Write the structure tokens for this entry.
Amino acid sequence: MAVGIEILLVSPLAVAARLFALLREADFWSTVLFSMLRIAAGFFLGLAAGLLLAVAAGRFGAVETLLWPFVVTIKSVPVASFIIISLIWLSNSQLAVFISFLMVFPVIYSNVLQGIKSTDPQLLEMAALYRVKWRRKLFYIYLPGIRSYLISACSVALGMSWKAGIAAEVIGVVRGSIGEKLYEAKIYFMTSDLFAWTVVIVLLSVLFEKAVLFAVRGIFGRLARR
Amino acid sequence: MKNLVMERISKRYGEKQVLQELSLTLRPGSVTSVMGPSGCGKTTLLNIVAGLVKPDSGRVLGRPGRVGFVFQEDRLCMDFSAAANIRLVTGKTGKDPMMYGIFSALGLQDSIMMPVREMSGGMKRRVAIARALCYQPELLLLDEAFKGLDAQIRQQTMDCVLKWRGDCTVLCVTHERAEADYLGGALLQLGRTADREEGEQGSRFPFPSGITREA
Ligand SMILES: Nc1ncnc2c1ncn2[C@@H]1O[C@H](COP(=O)(O)OP(=O)(O)O)[C@@H](O)[C@H]1O
Ligand SMILES: [Mg+2]
């Protein structure tokens, strides 16, 4: 292994070599799966909660008022504080789910709510005149307007969920997670490991983002073909 | 069915008196055209009749429950097909023979499933008209509905409106005398002097409305 002179910086070659070695290690895929499942779970929970509550807030102003202090708090409290608070409150293995959720929810909620509020008032007036039911209005009038807001929010939230989720695993030294590998790389000065795992995280994050955005676009495309 | 009565309606926006003490009675099933220069309050009048805008004073009596409105803008859901735009207001999910009849009469029978975004301006206009007709309104408001259609299609579209309106009351704003004549019925001239003298309205003779020609 490249411990020795290559502590501060490692050559790309050493990182690549370490990466290929990692792929053949017994616990590589289980580690990747462990972190990915939790971060993805947090992401989808945040997405679902953000969407539902934004729709509710768009319909009932009181919901927006009630949620406002929570959303502002989540947005402005440093993620490290949340991680440490969660370590005290929650089971260590589910930490990344919660932290990923906290990163995603406010971004999705705020953006979608903004999308709902920027809906064309002339279309809404038309719908009111023709006595269109609320569910149809949501589908035909609000949803297409939400599209671009949701896609950009997802894109931002996906990156954040990976960064914060892994950070939580590092701080919590969550057993069996990618974060734990990073932590070990740090305490044993395995710089090539650190870089190799970082490459893995970036790749996972990019692939996950592509997959989610593809799915979101696909869903909206299908709607339009009705 | 009751008469639709507008009673001494006034509306001002800021300094500008748009409508002043306007009274008008529409008989059930009648066709009435409204003409006047830009900015004289035609759209405002339709909005008040539809109940979308409250008049400063005066009232509208006998407004039916189902009002169809072809707005001056298309106001269509661009991401959806023409059929979906119709479904939005009719709520019908299965086959809708009336919709097919109306689209055929408008020459749009091959574009029913076309996304509205991909349509030309004239096609969008006709989808907006189809939407109002498919709604089967008791009162149909048309705000320059035939504008921008070329002569032959315009005639076809007016024929379609006359055929499929059933026995609903029609109030139609237009810039073309020929359109008003073609639709038949009474003609109301609005605010002839509104542009020259600020805040002043043209003479408002009590208009014998509801004398419908045979459609
Ligand atoms: N919502 C509004 N706010 C302020 N002014 C308005 C509004 N709606 C219409 N107006 C004014 O009222 C006048 C009449 O408008 P409108 O009814 O649209 O005229 P028309 O349809 O005959 O062209 C115009 O001068 C317009 O600027
Ligand atoms: Mg107008």
